[in-house]
Structures are given as C-alpha cells and as structure tokens.
Amino acid sequence: MNTRLIKPVMLAAAAALTLSACATATPYAPAGPDSRYGYSEQRIDSDRYRISFSGNSVTSRDQVDMGLLLRAAELTRDNGYDWFATVNRATDRDVRLTGMRDPFYYDRYSPFWGPSWRYYRGGYWNPWRDPFGPNFDVREIERFEASSEIVMGRGAKPANDPNAFNAREVIDNLGSRVPRSM
Question: Where is the signal peptide (predicted)?
C-alpha cells in the first residue's frame, strides 16, 4: 500500500468526523452554561411548570416539539403525577440570513458584472443574481424553540382535553425518537 496516500486519507477522515460532530441535532439534555440549546424548566406551583426546549440550526421543528413533550412527561412522572396538560404551547421559529462578500470580485468589478450569488435554503444552494447588488453568498439559518406551561394531574387524564397527555405513554412513544447526549 502506498504510504504517501495514507496520511492525506487519514487527515481527510479526521476532518470529516470533526465537521460531522459540529453538525448534529441538539441532544436531549439540560441547557446550561456550556450550551444554550436543550431543555429548561421553572417550577411555578406544586403541579405547574414552565418548560422550554431550544434547538440549534440542524434540529428540526419536530425534534424540538418532541423534546418539549418528553421533558414535560418526565417531570410529570418524576413528581408522582400521571398526566399533564399543556397551556399556551408555542413553537417559535428564528430565521437569520448570513452573508459574506466575495473579496476577490467585490472591489474589482462593477456591480453589473460578477459571479452569481448563491442562496442556501432547504438543504440546497440556489443560484441568484442581482445585477445592482454586491456579490456574496447568503445562507438562511433556522432555529426553533418550543415552550409551554404544563399542569400535572393524578389518575386518568381528562378524556375530552386534546392538550392532555398520559406521561408514561409519551415517554414510551417519544423516548427512543429523541436524540440523547453522548
């Protein structure tokens, strides 16, 4: 085997692993001083909590919503209750556009000629050209945060309340679908 090829291949593999570690969904873990992403809760009353789950830019809305419901179910179970109902549940979407000028073309050509801009959205780059604007790449960064106040109860959950959940069923159904921290 050619030993001159082994080092570049190993370096490329290490770089790919490093980059893939940076691009992972928010794990199910408490948010804290090291990361603002994850779940947090605040006790309001003996049977009431305010809960939130914040995801990074590669965490889908579904994952954020599942993280919120799973945390609510775990708090309900850990406090000795059987069911919880969500009150004022909301999922917020934060979208930011980031752009960077192309340093080679920006100062060297008129605004009427230059390379096309590219716009990243939905997992792919779209060609985009504005003859009167600067030349740069634009990327849309999307993050979700779900929050809810929950009320916990004992016994059978209210039958006619669509916002009431059986805590054990939520844990059984969502527990394996939510990525955990390593």
Answer: 1-25
